[in-house]
TrEMBL record, chain A:
Keywords: Electron transport, Transport. Pfam families: ETF (PF01012). The keyword Transcription does not apply. Belongs to the ETF beta-subunit/FixA family. PANTHER family: ELECTRON TRANSFER FLAVOPROTEIN BETA-SUBUNIT, ELECTRON TRANSFER FLAVOPROTEIN SUBUNIT BETA. Residues 23-215 form the Electron transfer flavoprotein alpha/beta-subunit N-terminal domain. InterPro entries: ET-Flavoprotein_bsu_CS, ETF_a/b_N, ETF_b, ETF_beta_N, Rossmann-like_a/b/a_fold. This is Electron transfer flavoprotein subunit beta. It comes from Colwellia echini.
From TrEMBL, chain B:
The lineage of its organism: Bacteria, Pseudomonadati, Pseudomonadota, Gammaproteobacteria, Alteromonadales. It comes from the Bacteria. Keywords: Electron transport, FAD, Flavoprotein, Transport. This is Electron transfer flavoprotein subunit alpha/FixB family protein. The keyword Transport applies. Residues 3-181 form the Electron transfer flavoprotein alpha/beta-subunit N-terminal domain.
Amino acid sequence: MKVLVPIKRVIDYNVKVRVKTDNSNVDLSNTKMAINPFCEIAVEEAVRLKEAGIATEIIAISIGDKSCQEQLRTALALGADRAIQIETDLQPSESLDSINIAKLLQKIVEEEEPQLIILGKQAIDSDNNQTGQMLAALTGMPQGTFASAVKVEGDKVNVTREVDGGLQSLALNLPAIVTTDLRLNEPRYASLPNIMKAKRKPLVVRSASEFGIDLTPRTKLLKVTAPAQRQAGIVVKSIDELVDKLKNEAKVIS
Amino acid sequence: MSILVIAEHDNSALKTETLKTVTAAQQIGSDITLLVAGFNCQSVAESAAKVNGISKVLVCDNTVYQHQLAENVSLLITELAADYEHILATASTTGKNIMPRVAALLDVTQISDIIGVESNNTFTRPIYAGNAIATVQSLDAKKVITVRSTGFDAVNTDGNADIFNIDTVTDAGLSNHIADEFTKSERPDLGAAGVVISGGRGMQNGDNFKLLDGIADKLGAAIGASRAAVDAGFVPNDMQVGQTGKIVAPDLYIAVGISGAIQHLAGMKDSKIIVAINKDPDAPIFQVADYGIVADLFDALPELESKL
């Protein structure tokens, strides 16, 4: 089966972001960027399905300016067969709303007809957790979100989901959409020979405008502020002092 | 301005998170309808009718809604959506699963995980693991919103709204429920507990989490964990506190053997009082802790338990 893996270029998860002084957005200039950690897990799962003889072709896709080709090359180095970049003329500071991302992906799904689409459950920049579910709605496919186990069996995929309170398992008719949670797998590292080979794998650039979708923003970012800072705390010397402070100063225990 | 709030429940009890989502709805407008979709969920409907600040309760009781499958419930909500300008649900795994599907079916985007209401179309929400707060205006005609429950207080439950049964059946026929495997716990729910005590990698193994039991018992606390502790297999994943786990904001949060990575802090830094127990004086957790103690947790925990 053909597997489609949408990925996103985001700030590296170890970097602490700074809000711009004019409160227009966060400052991403000269910041280390990387493939979103959940997308990495999605690529890994697709590659494992190929190694298990279930997936026949893996297509990685990303939407953004030229810089996201770097992350597509990473996906190719990890084992994707080919890549598609949907080029948008947005400034790096702007972003498409999830519904518009999902509509662009829907067009690629119609062209490529993958049996399985694996996305990360959320991007660590916008923290939206929407795109997979929206793409499922637009394509009319079932969805297995927050997946910690994926098993393809005949014309169905069984997905174990991480839900509040424990785990839930579902059987979804194929074609289906899966979004990855952290526990699904441990992504591999790209080896140097594979990084070299990835440079020769096909990467097609498509313009967002050719799909005829109205990409008018649905939201307006009015401002971005830093969260309230916590007051500096104190280091206590003993458990007795800690219990005393909690009882008599903070009054959170009795 | 009519608002539809999707009730969070397990077919037997209404979750307290719903009471917080209703508070958010009240800050948007006044004509609030609560939807209970489930199976054999009449007891939930009765609790829902007591929720203050709502006009009525819609109950859709059918086997297709038993497990809150997104494919089926999203069709039901979409069908009801014509009468409402705002549709709200709790940002739980259920709400996060269903609501973006609803939004796309309605051709709107979603405003996720709001922590504040500025006006009926402008909301605040955390981005970048809570390291920035965005003020976002929705330009869509219909607003589909998920609500972070730690951002709002709960409404009271001494009301008396009317219950209307609806018999719509929307079965997409795309998915089937196989099984649930829920963690059994006598302790308070992590998201709703007034006190949370969490263990991290420093706990070293799953057995050592028992050291937290006695303290949790004495404080009536829920027990949480960092991702490191979950990944190492010490405890199940539904105990994870952080950007991608549960977001908690209790009166007292005790972090034991947790270094304080950005992703963990995203899930607990709105707690009223934070206590850190860690043997590394340079651990980042001390930068957000109100009270810190530099100590070996294997000495500190038994002593703390004995002195509470």
